[in-house]
Specification:
about 325 residues, alpha/beta, six-stranded mixed beta sheet, 12 strands, about 35% helix
């Protein structure tokens, strides 16, 4: 239900409300002799940009290369390659858009990573959206595994059903990720070994600063039993948890997040995500510690303008 309303709301804003407001503002504030023509021109331009974002921009995909250098990284992991993707929202990749997930899977496999991580929001609303995509999800393999965490959409947050049904649907979503062969980390961690060296991949449940977001993430439980001197790659869907919880409660060197979609638009370096998030895309640092925020692969609303979907290759480097 919410997915349908979200798309309808977007269409109403993109093709009716914003063009009309633009037209009347031009009529009111510009000289009469050319205010109307300017308003019509700008309104049509805005509608064309919306169409471009829906039918061209949403289908664009970029692969970004990122390096993270740390003195704490064990020598055996120098050059270790992690491929991150996030916010697939596979419920939108149906019908004529099914090929988008297949292309993403092919691209990830071609990169030959040591590890693959998914940082949440696999579905739009319901777990049944995932079922048709299981064959593609099962194709994802890496020597050290495929690890995932849940995003806010994966907790039945937006389902208009009672609490018991929501919990049942949450369990179904988790089961489907595991059926794909992914290692779902829910306030948990795993040890990755290279000879006598090791690093930790840990996954927190979702925690968002906004009160409407699920707050199940527990840093201490996630890293229980982990040596504070270990090198930790921490998966957390919502980047607001980095400053609110992660930096103060643990020593994780690198956090990987998603959630923001980068605002799904970037015009001349400006993004609507900047209105709600301090960190909403790319690699950011706090001292030697860092967080990478992926702008995501897909979206609930099939629209991207100046901000293609992304797959990220994160190469770990030992500081010499």
């Amino acid at each position: 239900m919410i997915a349908r309303y979200a798309v309808l709301f977007f269409l109403m804003m993109a093709f009716v409300v914003i063009p009309l407001v633009t037209y009347f503002l031009c009529r009111i504030f510009l000289p009469r002799r050319w205010g109307g023509k300017t308003g019509i021109t700008l309104a049509l331009l805005l509608m064309l940009l919306a169409l471009y974002g829906m039918f061209v921009g949403y289908q664009e995909l970029e692969i970004h290369q990122v390096e993270y250098v740390s003195k704490d990284l064990p020598e055996a992991f120098d050059g270790y390659r992690i491929v991150q993707f996030s916010d697939a929202h596979v419920g939108t990749m149906t019908g004529s858009r099914e090929w988008l997930l297949e292309r993403a899977v092919n691209s990830i496999l071609a990169l030959r990573p040591d590890m693959i991580v998914f940082t949440g929001d696999l579905q739009n609303v319901y777990p049944d959206e995932i079922i048709a995509h299981l064959p593609q999800m099962r194709r994802l393999m890496a020597p050290d595994g495929v690890y995932s965490v849940l995003g806010n959409h994966d907790y039945a947050t937006y389902q208009p059903v009672d609490s018991l049904m929501k919990e049942a649907n949450c369990v179904k979503t988790q089961a489907l990720e595991r059926q794909a062969g992914w290692i779902l980390l829910m306030n948990d961690h795993r040890v990755i070994r290279r000879d006598s060296d090791s690093i930790i991949v840990a996954g927190m449940e979702n925690w968002g600063k906004a009160k409407r977001m699920p707050r199940r993430g527990d840093v201490k439980k996630t890293l229980e039993g982990v040596d504070p001197a270990s090198f930790v790659v921490l998966l957390q869907h919502d980047p607001t948890a980095w400053r609110e919880l992660i930096l103060s409660q643990c020593n994780a060197q690198l956090t990987l997040s998603g959630h923001t979609h980068g605002g799904q638009a970037n015009i001349f370096g400006l993004s609507p995500a900047a209105l709600g998030y301090k960190e909403y895309e790319g690699l950011v640092y706090e001292g030697a510690r860092a967080m990478f925020v992926s702008t995501g692969l897909g979206a609930l609303i099939p629209f991207r303008l100046g901000l293609p979907g992304e797959i990220v290759v994160i190469t770990l480097r030992k500081q010499k």
